[in-house]
Write a structure and sequence with these properties.
By secondary structure, this protein is of the alpha+beta class. It is built from eight helices and four strands, in the order E-H-E-H-E-E-H-H-H-H-H-H. Strands 2-1-3-4 form a four-stranded mixed β-sheet.
């Protein structure tokens, strides 16, 4: 069996999600650091595996996956079938729904707030964007009332949401104290996911430092 390769960058929340998934599933892999901020995704070598010049990229033999959520669901289905992403179509539909919510709403609304600041286009966060993020946080707070993003057991959606939540916590520009369920869930996930500090925590802190270097309240 070919060894898995993860091409990623610690600051990238989606890359951190796949990195956490690999260790949660106890898979053997090689991590290849791609410094996005220094043009690492624009080299001929990288563009040959992902013309979209984004991270993460998961390589499994002759298979290349360039979207983080597709990579995570593939890893479970192909290498460690489990309740993290079960075979039941009905259960999968609910997990998929959460994954799509993260990319289309939770992560997107966080990104609308932070990425313009990160890249120096703004030094503040628009109130409209912040309020939209707070609305998403309210929904996520309701989702995790049972202890996990979906129901009462961990799924791959928890890993995906944690990459977003840890980044938001590190940026520290919105008061998260009203979202008590989310705080409990976040603290629990950081303990339950193996190697969290190395695979996500450090990158989240670096993401937050990048944001704070340009942010003015």
């Amino acid at each position: 069996m070919s060894k898995l390769e993860l091409h990623g960058f610690a600051i990238s929340p989606p890359a951190r999600a796949v990195h956490m998934a690999l260790d949660l599933l106890k898979l053997d892999y090689t991590f290849i650091d791609v410094n996005v901020l220094e043009g690492g995704t624009r080299t001929p070598e990288f563009l040959s595996i992902n013309p979209q010049h984004t991270v993460p990229v998961l390589v499994d033999g002759n298979l290349t996956i360039t979207e983080s959520r597709a990579a995570m669901t593939y890893l479970v289905s192909q290498h460690r079938p489990s309740q993290l992403y079960p075979a039941c179509a009905k259960k999968r539909s609910q997990i998929d729904q959460r994954l799509y919510f993260n990319i289309g709403t939770f992560y997107k609304r966080m990104g609308d707030c932070v990425y313009p600041v990160n890249f120096g286009k703004k030094s503040t966060v628009d109130e409209e964007d912040k309020n939209a993020l707070k609305e998403a946080l309210m929904w996520v707070n309701q989702m995790v009332v049972g202890g996990y993003v979906l129901g009462n057991s961990m799924t791959i959606a928890d890993v995906d949401f944690l990459s977003t939540m840890s980044s938001l916590e590190a940026c520290d520009f919105v008061n998260l104290s009203p979202y008590k369920n989310l705080k409990v869930w976040s603290d629990k996930m950081k303990k339950e996911i193996p190697n969290y500090a190395e695979n996500c925590g450090k990158g989240a802190l670096a993401f937050g430092a990048w944001f704070k270097s340009n942010y003015k309240e």
